[in-house]
Write a structure and sequence with these properties.
This protein has 872 residues and is an alpha+beta fold. It is built from 28 helices and 23 strands. It has five domains: 65 residues, no CATH class; 193 residues, no CATH class; 188 residues, no CATH class; 164 residues, no CATH class; 190 residues, no CATH class. Strand 1 and strand 2 form a beta hairpin.
Length: 872
């Protein structure tokens, strides 16, 4: 094998060795004959006759010793490269077309690979599952300590089940205090998602002991920012607010959380504290987001069956908070993390597949036209003895070479497209790192390039393999021309069909985005700015709002515990009206929000009935609440809600010390979209700040742009309490924009793909029609010579161009009817089979086709009959 490879790449040396070997045999045989008494001349003649014709022997040796396949392949590659080099215009157009189609696939596959295919960066990620609680109208609720305790006691399918809850905290310091994210975790939670800490240790069972010192695990970021990456930090104390804790460990630099967006667990958590889990309080609040690791050999189906049994046991416990509709749901962790973007990415991946097919159709049309131009070459090669198989192999090699060149060019386009996608990606994709052109993506690009070369080469190969040698020599290729024209029409129809499907889907997504822009979120974000401060005291917060309202250009100021459409935190709990039956209690949930008076006015919400809160609505007086119109209509349809009582959870004795109490409804506000612009997730209950103090977001309604507003805000906070940090200063409209980001992302990418598809289809129709006009120049000349007018020729050419377009439209319509229901979950305010959308897109395709057909048709009307007949 090595000798054959050497001969393949060192032909001159191999030829010299072959000459020397044959010369040796001839001379040896000659010497033998001379020894027998022959003359030298006769001996040489006899030796040559015995060995045979030297060149024939050489060829036999070459065939016996060479690697035919590789030699033929290299010959075909060299020949194909020469032919492509001779047609730079064809090469540039074909490579650009392929690069666009393959590059778009490369970019989208990079995202699909990173988000859907690559395992999450956690130990045994394939065995991680998320555990969700369902109660009434909440199907993805967190669990209480009691419920987690019961799950741990009864499970056999999980090795470990842990939980986390994230809130805000403050790290004081010599300089400006820093607001941080604080995670309260069960002691087994961090090892579920992180193999080992960078320094120190994670929590252990000893940290749950009642007399154990308060320990904390800090993030790598806090370690670097606040402690200068001091390696001796383990065992030292750190002040957190008014308390101190011993640093037990440091998480790795690249460690972050990738949770579902509705879990309110941010990617980066700065501090971790242990939470002990016991079953002493069956009525405790649900706040822990649970993750479990399945035992080896188990699966989510078995875990779900076990969870159903555990749910039934929890419901049967006396005094348990588990109502009659309590249930547990088990989902694979990775599947649940990507559930919001999976359909979008897969549909976009299908869309770029359509673009690739359109690119293949365009290149196939170019190759058909080129094959007709090379008909004389093909005819001569066939006449000289080249087999059809040899011709096909040559074409396949040229196609593969063209596909590989297009694949290399596609990497550049794919890289640029990927950068644009990452810049426009929605928040649901922001936590996924490593979206890049890695080895798997490069392998995908190469595979697509090879597959593409096979696809766009089918039509030219079939047309060439049907070559009639005798007919071609007689008629200079009319047979091949007719075959090529049939393929041209088929490919144009396919381009139109695929382009129409993309256009219909894009029309639906664009209308959805427009409808989302028109949604009334229940508040007005214009000229409203917000910032966050952690757990302020009432007196300080009240004074801060008064000071802010007095600033120039400020109309009003207010505060709320959870900003609308901000998914970084949430608070919801059970409620029931007075007189509810026991089975109706703890059965449905509402979002709870803590506010100060003036909140609704500041964000432009509509108070439908009753009054706003006042300063006297505190723990010392009767507890009062404001509800939204959804809850009012649900509990008291057609009745006045003011004065009615609800059993709710509030915290009059201190932060997070929740207790159930009866509260009187004093107002009804129009529902505010808190989770999504397009979905009403839960109704809302508002409680006064005095009954539920917690980290607050302050809102400022201004008359317009206020210079140095952020600086003024920080100055006012420092004036009252310099230990309180200010964070997340920005316009409320940014939060609304983030809520629209996924719809905008899908619409933007779909519109980009459709624009590319329409451009390619337009170029394809133009190219095919130009080629057809060039082939029919003689016919057009005759028609004009016998009296045809320019309008007649224009009509003929347009009629010829629209023959494949109409079947393409019909096919595209049928394909769209079958595929558009897949978009149902992504649509808002429009149905998949919207008639107006179809009608507009049919008109768009006809306009694009007419534009693509105009120039070739106009060129046909300018054909000189004498010139056409002379060269026909």
């Amino acid at each position: 094998m090595m000798r054959r490879l050497r001969r393949l790449f060192h032909k001159q040396t191999a030829e010299k060795q072959l000459d020397a070997e044959l010369r040796y045999h001839v001379e040896g045989q000659t010497a033998d004959y001379v020894a027998r008494g022959m003359s030298a001349e006769e001996a040489r003649r006899r030796a040559r006759m015995e060995i045979g014709e030297i060149e024939d022997v050489k060829q036999e040796c070459r065939e016996a010793r060479s690697m035919h396949f590789l030699e033929d392949l290299m010959q075909d590659v060299r020949y194909g490269a020469r032919m492509l080099r001779r047609s730079p215009g064809f090469l540039a157009v074909a490579v650009l077309t392929l690069a666009v189609g393959i590059g778009a696939n490369t970019a989208i596959f990079s995202v699909v690979n990173a988000v859907l295919l690559r395992p999450l960066p956690y130990p045994d990620a394939d065995r991680l599952a998320i555990v969700l609680v369902g109660v009434g109208n909440a199907t993805r609720a967190p669990a209480s300590q009691f419920q987690l305790f019961q799950i741990r006691q009864r499970t056999k399918e999980f090795e470990q089940v842990g939980g986390i809850w994230v809130t805000n905290g403050v790290i004081p310091g010599d300089g400006e205090p820093e607001q941080v994210k604080v995670g309260f975790v069960t002691t087994n939670f961090l090892p579920l998602l992180c193999a080992r800490p960078e320094l120190g240790r994670f929590f252990g069972a000893e940290d749950e002991a009642p007399n154990a010192p308060w320990g904390v695990v800090i993030s790598h970021g806090v370690w670097a920012r606040r402690f200068g990456s001091d390696p001796s930090i383990i065992g030292k104390s750190i002040r957190i607010g008014a308390n101190s804790a011993v640093i037990l460990g440091v998480t790795p630099k690249d460690f972050k959380f990738i949770f579902p967006s509705d879990a309110s667990v941010p990617a980066n958590v700065d501090l971790f504290y242990p939470v002990s889990v016991d079953g002493s309080d069956p009525n405790g609040p649900g706040y822990l987001h649970l993750i479990g690791r399945l035992r080896p050999g188990s699966n989510t189906a078995r875990a779900q069956a076990e969870a159903d049994s555990i749910s039934e046991q929890i419901r049967s416990l006396r005094g348990s908070s588990g109502a009659s509709n309590f249930r547990l749901y088990i989902f694979p962790f990775q599947n649940d993390v990507v559930r919001e973007v999976r359909r979008t990415l897969l549909l976009l991946f299908g869309g770029v597949g359509f673009v690739l097919l359109i690119s293949c159709a365009n290149v196939a049309n170019l190759l058909l036209a080129r094959a007709t131009g090379r008909l004389r070459e093909t005819t001569v090669r066939t006449a000289l003895g080249a087999s059809r198989g040899r011709l096909v192999r040559q074409l396949l090699t040229e196609n593969a070479l063209l596909g590989c060149i297009g694949g290399v060019a596609a990497l550049g386009i794919g890289w640029a497209a990927l950068r644009a996608i990452l810049a426009a990606r929605p928040a649901s994709l922001a936590n996924f790192s490593g979206v890049n052109l890695d080895f798997k993506v490069l392998a995908f690009t190469f595979a697509v390039a090879i597959l593409t070369s096979a696809l766009f080469g089918i039509a030219p190969i079939v047309a060439s393999s049907r070559l009639d040698l005798t007919q071609s020599l007689k008629e200079a290729g009319s047979t091949a021309g007719r075959t090529g024209r049939a393929w041209n029409k088929l490919l144009v129809a396919a381009e139109v069909a695929l382009g129409f499907v993309l256009l219909v889907g894009t029309g639906l997504l664009m209308r959805t985005f427009v409808n989302v822009l028109r949604v009334d979120p229940g508040f007005r974000a214009e000229n409203v700015f917000s910032f966050q401060i952690p757990s302020p005291k009432y007196e300080m917060l009240h004074q801060l709002l008064e000071n802010l309202a007095a600033l120039p250009g400020v109309r009003s100021a207010a505060a709320v515990s959870h900003l609308p459409l901000d998914s970084t935190a949430n608070w919801y709990d059970h409620y029931w009206k007075e007189g509810a039956k026991p089975e109706e209690q703890n059965s449905v949930m509402a979002d709870h929000r803590s506010i100060l008076p003036g909140y609704f006015r500041t964000i432009g919400a509509t108070l439908l009935e009753g009054r706003d809160f006042t300063e006297s609505d505190d723990a010392a007086h009767q507890h009062v609440i404001i509800i939204d119109d959804v809850l009012a209509q649900e509990l008291w349809p057609g009745e006045d809600s003011i004065g009615k009582k609800l059993n709710v959870s509030d915290s009059p004795s201190g932060p997070y010390q929740f207790q159930r109490d009866w509260a009187v409804v004093v107002g009804v506000v129009k529902h505010i979209q808190c989770h999504s612009l397009t979905l009403m997730v839960r109704p809302q209950i508002y409680v006064p700040f005095q009954l539920a103090p917690r980290p607050m977001s302050v809102l400022i309604h201004t008359t317009g742009i206020v210079p140095n507003l952020a600086t003024s805000v920080r100055a006012q906070v420092v004036l009252l309490d310099k230990t309180i940090p200010v964070s997340n200063v920005g316009p409320l409209s940014d939060t609304v924009a983030r809520a629209r980001s996924q719809s905008r992302f899908a619409s933007l990418l779909a519109a980009s793909l459709t624009a590319i598809a329409l451009l390619l289809a337009c170029v394809g129709i133009y190219g095919v029609l130009s080629y057809s006009v060039a082939q029919r120049t003689g016919e057009i000349g005759i028609r004009m010579a016998i009296g045809a007018r320019g309008a007649d020729i224009m009509k003929m050419v347009f009629g010829s161009s629209f023959r494949p377009i109409l079947p393409g439209l019909i096919s595209g319509f049928l394909l769209s009817v079958a595929l558009t229901p897949l978009l149902s979950d992504m649509l808002f305010g429009i149905k998949p089979n919207d008639f107006t959308n179809y009608a507009e897109n049919v008109v768009a395709i006809l306009i694009v086709s007419a534009i693509a057909s105009y120039l070739p048709a106009r060129r046909a009307t300018r054909v000189d009959p004498l010139v056409a007949l002379r060269h026909w």
